[in-house]
Design goal:
The chain is an all-alpha fold. It has 15 helices and no strands.
């Protein structure tokens, strides 16, 4: 490992020398461009040696040097590729720097009109904010941008995947209208696809819970609409649970509410998102004694 790091550092120094000589007057007359190409090769070799030595920050830095040289040479695609390579290295040691490199790559890809690739990298940034940097607001921002680019390129499945993450975070942040809009939109589009039709019940269920976090009457009307759109929804356990919850909220019946959720959970396990929403809904019974 130490040997690889040493060789990498030597190659970095060699690359700097080649760049310095390419900038001199004689260098510009005699093979300046070839010196830059040689420097690029040295940086790339150094980056891979740093990777072998698990020196991720140094590897990322070396890839960034290569990317900047490609930008100056006008080779946009190669520059973007090396910024992505740099980001992959920085992910292991510096998530903020990983984001920065991906944003540089995205700028290049959007200028080239490669929006699907740009969308994938916005999604990667969102996941970094989600898992490494614990910044839900920025994760939402990049999921939304990714979805927008995916939709523009007719990658509907990929767009919906990002939108569902956006809705999940929007609801958690109490932006219920935004979450409801997304869940209803995806539910409707799912009904038009025979392969996805069954999944519509989940999105309707999620939307109904978001409605319940805000207003019982709107939730009742929403459930009626969903049953009209998708008659089979009326017979699902999800629809029946929502109707039970509405009834228990109106009756201020905490025990009934708790039992209904427990019964559902014993058959279909509720994840953290569902639990969070249901706790908020249940809290209304205590916080709003005149709810009914």
């Amino acid at each position: 490992m130490a040997d690889n790091e040493q060789k990498a550092m030597q190659l970095m120094a060699e690359a700097e020398k080649k760049l310095s000589s390419s900038k001199s007057f004689l260098g510009s007359l005699f093979g300046g461009s070839s010196k830059v190409e040689e420097a690029v090769d040295c940086y790339l070799r150094a980056a891979n040696l740093f990777k072998m030595a698990k020196k991720w920050a140094q590897a990322g830095q070396a890839f960034c040097h290569v990317a900047q040289l490609h930008l100056k040479a006008g080779t946009q695609h190669d520059a973007a590729t090396n910024f992505v390579d740099a980001s992959t290295c920085y992910k292991k040691c510096d998530p903020n720097e990983a984001v920065s490199c991906l944003l540089k790559a995205i700028e290049i890809y959007t200028n080239m009109g490669r929006f699907t690739v740009a969308a994938k990298h916005h999604q990667n940034i969102a996941e970094l904010y989600e898992t490494e940097l614990a910044d839900a607001a920025r994760a939402m921002q990049h999921y939304e941008q990714a979805a927008d680019y995916f939709r523009g390129e007719e990658s509907i499945s990929a767009a919906n995947k990002c939108l569902l993450k956006l809705a999940q975070y929007a609801a958690t942040a109490e932006h219920y209208d935004k979450a409801i809009q997304i869940y209803e939109q995806i539910a409707k589009s799912s009904l038009d696809n025979s392969l996805l039709k069954y999944s519509a019940k989940e999105y309707m269920f999620r939307a109904a819970l978001c409605h319940l976090c805000v207003d019982i009457l709107n939730a009742q009307h929403a459930v009626e609409r969903y049953c009209g759109m998708y008659p089979a929804f009326a017979d699902t356990r999800e629809c029946k649970l929502v109707k039970e919850l509405i009834e228990h909220l109106e009756e201020q019946n905490v025990d009934g509410f708790t039992e209904a959720v427990k019964t559902y959970d014993s058959i279909s396990r509720l994840d953290q998102w569902y639990t969070t929403m249901l706790v908020r809904i249940k809290k209304q019974i205590n916080d709003n004694p005149e709810l009914c």
